[in-house]
Amino acid sequence: VIITQGQYVASAVKQDQYPEADLPEIVFIGRSNVGKSSLINSLTRVNNLARVSSQPGKTQTINFFEVGVKIAEVEERKAFYLVDLPGYGYAKTGKEKRKIWSKFIEEYLLNSPRLTFVCQLIDSRHEPMASDVEMFNWLVDNGIPVLIIATKVDKIGKNERAKNIAAIKRKLGIKEISVLPYSSLKNEGRSDLLDVIGDSLLE
Ligand code: GTP
Ligand code: MG
Question: What's the ipTM?
Answer without folding.
Answer: 0.99
